[in-house]
Every structure is written in C-alpha cells, then in structure tokens.
Write a structure and sequence with these properties.
Layout lengths: L3 E9 L10 E7 L6 E6 L7 E2 L7 E6 L4 E7 L3 E2 L5 E2 L21 E5 L3 E7 L8 E6 L8 E3 L12 E4 L2 E5 L2 H5 L2 H4 L14 H9 L15 E4 L2 E6 L9 E4 L2 E4 L5 E3 L12 E9 L1
Parallel strand pairs: 1-5, 2-16
Antiparallel strand pairs: 1-20, 2-5, 3-4, 3-6, 6-9, 7-8, 9-10, 10-15, 11-12, 11-16, 13-14, 17-18, 18-19
Pfam families: Thaumatin (PF00314)
Keywords: Disulfide bond, Membrane, Signal, Transmembrane, Transmembrane helix
Protein name: Thaumatin-like protein
Length: 282
C-alpha cells in the first residue's frame, strides 16, 4: 500500500539571506477542512504570505532573524487561478497572498523572534479555529501556547458568527459591541482600567494559555530561546509531540531522537515567497 505525506516548503527569501540562521515555523493543518493560512510581518518590510493547506498538509515558513509577525487560518475561501477571491473568516482582502492583517474573527499566532523569542496565541480578535504554538528543543520556559478547544461549540449567542446556518466563528465582545470597555480604548486603554469581562472570562476559562483581552499578558505571552516552532491548527488535546525541520533534521519536542531529512533547495527570487508541494511516497 502506498501512503503519502504532503509537505509544502514556504521560504521568504531575502537578498544575501543566510537560511541557516532562520527559524522554521512548521504550519500543520490537523483540521477536517481545508484552510488558507495567512502570514504578515509586523516589524519589517517583508511581504506577506498566503497559501492553501488541505487536511493533513504541512508548510514550513523560514522566518529571518528578528522577524515579527502573525499567522492565522482563513476558512471557507474560494480563490480563482489568479489568487483572487473571498473567505468566510480571517480574510485579508480579496487576494490569496496577505499584505494586511486578517479581518476578525480569527485566532492568531503572534511572534517576535530573536535570541529570545516571544510568542502567543491571541483570541482578542475572536476565534475561528483551534490554534496552538509548540516550541521545538528550545531553552527556557518554552511551554505550549494557544487554544486547542473549539470555542464555536459553546459560543454565547450574541457573539456567534453564523453563515448558511452554521457557526463558523465566535466573535469577540469588542468586535460585536465596539465599546471602550470591551475594546480597551479611551479611559480603558491601560492595564489598570482594562480588566477581564464576562466575555473574555469565557475565552480564558476554555483556553487558559491564550490571550483573552488586550492586557492579558502575564498568563499568555511566553518566551523561549534557540528554537523552532510548530503552528498547528486543530491539534488533538492529547497530541503532545510536534515535529519541525531544524539543521537538516526532523526534530520533535519531548524527544532526543532525530531523523536526517534533506532540505529541498529552492531557486531564489528577491523578496518573493515560493511554495513547492512535494509528495513523498513510501
């Protein structure tokens, strides 16, 4: 019997870039539906990214040193052959490649990479998919961030985002009511006056290691050094082992065993992301 693994190598390539210094962000779709991850940089002029991941597919994004950015999943998308189209949730406009943040509601993985990496999963803009971030062989606290619970199941009716009779996302209270209190703006724009609300507490109870409101820093943002990351959509709660590609090896958290895996070297183009699908037959 033949089995196959779909791997997408997605590199943001820079002039004179040294890929060996990059941190690999391995993006996995464990959902039962196709998703369209979006990527935007928040602290550089690097272009955004966007691609399709079918159930069971994996992508590797090589982030250059000092990169900061967001990764999220878009759902219910329909793009034509030119990459133009729309999505039900997480849309970044009408193109497959994102150059701006996703439209709420969306679960978001956030990174600031360096000698010490800062990372979190934010539900401040609402929830559309379970999303976790797992460090691989890092040094420091290096715990798993995110939300592996599907908040759409028990979303309060007033926050429920429905399309075609189906709940496709759970909106944030800020997104629904646009009040200073829920959005932490105006007189609530500081950590003293902006406190958890009944709505953010629902998110926090279900997902204690994800941002539930703007100043939810102490229990949500995590630091780790010398690491790659796995960004996983819809990972089962009991799936503790995650793997990434580092120094030409397949490395898994919680394991000292590693398997040599050759990189596929890509043709370089200045400031262009490249996506190649590879089918491995065993």
């Amino acid at each position: 019997m033949h089995s196959s693994i779909q791997i997408i190598l997605l590199f943001t390539l820079l002039s004179r870039a040294n890929l060996s210094n990059c941190m690999n962000l391995t993006i996995i779709n464990n959902c039962h539906e196709t998703i369209w991850p979006g990527i935007t940089a928040t602290n550089t002029t690097l272009p955004g990214g966007g691609f399709v991941l079918k159930p069971g597919e994996t992508a590797i994004y090589a982030a250059p040193p000092g990169w900061g950015g967001r990764i999220w999943g878009r759902t219910g998308c329909n793009f034509d052959k030119n990459g133009n189209g729309t999505c039900q949730t997480g849309s970044c406009g009408t193109t497959l490649t994102c150059t701006s943040p996703g439209t709420p509601p969306a679960s978001i993985a956030e990174f600031t990479l360096g000698d010490t990496a800062f990372y979190d999963v934010s539900l401040v803009d609402g929830f559309n998919l379970p999303l976790t971030v797992t460090p691989i062989e890092g040094k420091g606290e290096c715990s798993i961030a995110g939300c592996d619970t599907d908040l759409r199941v028990n979303c309060p009716p007033e926050l429920t985002f429905r399309l075609d009779g189906k709940t496709v996302a759970c909106r944030s209270a800020c997104n629904v009511f646009d009040s200073d209190e829920f959005c932490c703006k105006g007189m609530y724009s500081n950590p003293v006056t902006c406190v958890p609300t009944n709505y953010s507490k629902i998110f926090k109870t279900a997902c204690p290691v994800a941002y539930s409101y703007a100043y939810d820093d102490p229990t949500s943002i995590i630091t780790c050094s010398t690491t790659d990351f796995v960004v996983s959509f819809c990972s089962p709660r009991n799936q503790t082992q995650q793997c990434s590609y580092h120094d030409n090896k397949l490395v898994c958290n919680g394991s000292t065993r590693s398997k040599s895996t050759p990189y596929i070297w890509l043709f370089f183009m200045f400031f262009l992301p490249i996506v190649i699908q590879i089918r491995i037959i065993s």
